[in-house]
Automatic annotation (TrEMBL):
Residues 117-237 form the Rubisco LSMT substrate-binding domain. It comes from Camellia sinensis var. sinensis (China tea). This is Rubisco LSMT substrate-binding domain-containing protein. GO terms for molecular function: protein-lysine N-methyltransferase activity. The keyword Ribonucleoprotein does not apply.
Length: 261
């Protein structure tokens, strides 16, 4: 998937290093709608043959809606050739990296981050989250229904805890964004601010801003360039939506802290 998205991005560039390879790829493809009867007969005894049957009576000229499933725009673009605006299942993927989290937390004003050098008890929890150990799964996501992937959220809460005694909840609780500040308001604010800073870093890796992308779409561009720019806009919009939601949560937590104080 990453190679496909990389080539799509490179195709929109002029003078790309990858252009000799891209120019040899087919520009269009077609899917046959009707198959000859002989071909169908040859398939009727095939072990992997499926028959699609409508579950209800369909009237003539009645519009049909296709349900592609709960997919992010990466799959929609690569598999179907389009992008869904404001896709609630769209997300961005990041690599869980201690140095990156240290930089994000410091940018967010979080004091004494120790993501690069967790304590032994914290490492043990990270292993349970499959973010440490022999074969960790380091790909985490932001956006979509979860907003913040549960493993990343739990890891941030644990790594920003002062001591092991603070972590009295099981991992299933620490993974839930809906559980408000399970390790205290200060811990939660630091965790959410770190994610917001991660979003800022992710936005900084895009070569353009949304307004620039929108101006590109107003020009005469190829279909592939239009799709690439639309895809880029939606990814940025997803990141911004995450930032807005988490910023709202931080303000609400701080207001509760000031009232209790």
């Amino acid at each position: 998937m990453r190679l496909g998205l990389k080539l799509l991005q490179e195709r929109a560039k002029s003078g790309s290093f990858w252009w000799p390879y891209i120019s040899n790829l087919p520009e269009t493809y077609s899917v046959p709608i009707f198959f000859p009867g002989e071909d169908i007969k040859n398939l009727q005894y095939a072990p992997l043959l499926y028959q699609v049957v409508a579950g209800t009576q369909i009237k003539q000229d009645e519009p049909l809606v296709l349900n592609y499933g709960c997919l992010n725009n990466d799959f929609f673009l690569l598999d179907y050739g389009f992008v869904v605006p404001s896709n609630p299942y769209d997300c961005i993927e990041l690599k869980y990296d201690g140095a990156l989290l240290d930089a994000a937390s410091m940018a967010a004003g979080v004091s004494s981050p120790n993501f690069s050098s967790p304590a032994p008890w914290q490492q043990q929890i990270l292993s349970q989250l499959n973010l440490d150990g022999e074969a960790p799964l380091l790909k985490v996501s932001l956006g979509g229904p979860e907003l913040v992937e549960d493993r990343l959220l739990a890891a941030l809460r644990v790594l920003l805890a002062d001591d092991m005694e603070m972590v009295k909840h099981d991992l299933s609780t620490l993974k839930l964004l809906s559980v408000e500040a399970p390790l205290g308001i200060s811990n939660e604010v630091s965790a959410l601010r770190t994610v917001i800073a991660l979003c800022v870093i992710a936005l900084g890796h895009f070569p353009t801003k949304i307004m620039e992308d929108e101006s590109i779409l107003k020009q005469r561009v190829s279909v592939s360039t239009e799709l690439a720019v639309q895809f880029r806009i939606q990814k940025k919009s997803t990141i911004i939506d995450v930032m807005r939601d988490l910023t709202r949560r931080v303000k609400l937590l701080l207001s509760k802290e000031s009232v209790s104080a």
